[in-house]
Amino acid sequence: EVQLVQSGAEVKKPGESLKISCMGSGYSITNYFIAWVRQMPGKGLEWMGIIYPDDSETRYSPSFQGQVTISADKSISTAYLQWSSLKASDTAMYYCARLAGEVSDFDYWGQGTLVTVSS
Amino acid sequence: QSVLTQPPSVSGAPGQRVTISCTGSSSNIGAAYGVHWYQQLPGTAPKLLIYGNSNRPSGVPDRFSGSKSGTSASLAITGLQAEDEADYYCQSYDLSLSGSVFGGGTKLTVL
User: Fold this and answer.
1) What is the C-alpha separation between B75 and B69, in angstroms, rounded?
2) Taking residues B18-30, what's their average pLDDT?
3) Is A48 left (phi over 0), alpha (psi -120 to 50) or beta?
4) B70–chain A Cβ distance below 8 A for any pair
5) Which chain A residues are within 8 Å of B9, Cβ to Cβ?
6) CA dist., res. A48 & res. A95, Å (int)
7) Cα–Cα distance between B111 and B108 in angstroms, integer?
8) Is 90 exceeded by the pLDDT of residue A50?
9) For an interface test with A, which of B58, B100, B101, B107 has the most A Cβ atoms less than 10 Å from its Cβ?
10) What is the longest distance spanned by two Cα atoms in chain A?
11) Residue A38 backbone zone (phi > 0: left; psi -120 to 50: alpha; other: beta)
12) pLDDT score for A42
């Protein structure tokens, strides 16, 4: 069974750093892309970027380029999303999702990681 | 402002048919990239409902169907049920942005 399991909810202060994770199981992570999607409170889905864990090739949405870093460790079937300096506006639910190709559908999703940034 | 445009809300009575539109441009839907649809029930992660314009993943009822024409796509739901009340999102790939794009989402209310 394909599963994407994300790390737990986080509460951080502005300026702090954070790295959240998404572990894939039930399939070979090196054969698929992993995307990160943001959903701010009460709002829609926003594509942040993707990574191909086999070679760590990464693409970012222009809206998120320079704001976050996407990485992966294929040896443990895990993708990451990290911030070096969080802002209150980063408060959101973050989902990872699997896709077969850059233009493909997102066929499996993680359960989401809620990130709250507040002083 | 989302790259793909959806109506903010639609509604229908149980048993009725509703459609949700998704309008794009020549750099995404019109460029022959597939349109995919997701259902997000309250408090849960999105779930793939339709892929490649009109294909249903295993387990999705045939009450859900998708179509595409030109720079637009549509999701149709027939025989509305209370459990269909959710947010629905379309998604495609955009050549200009070199990445995926989502519609703003449509809230379906079952009256």
Assistant:
1) 12
2) 96
3) alpha
4) no
5) none
6) 10
7) 9
8) yes
9) B100
10) 41
11) beta
12) 96
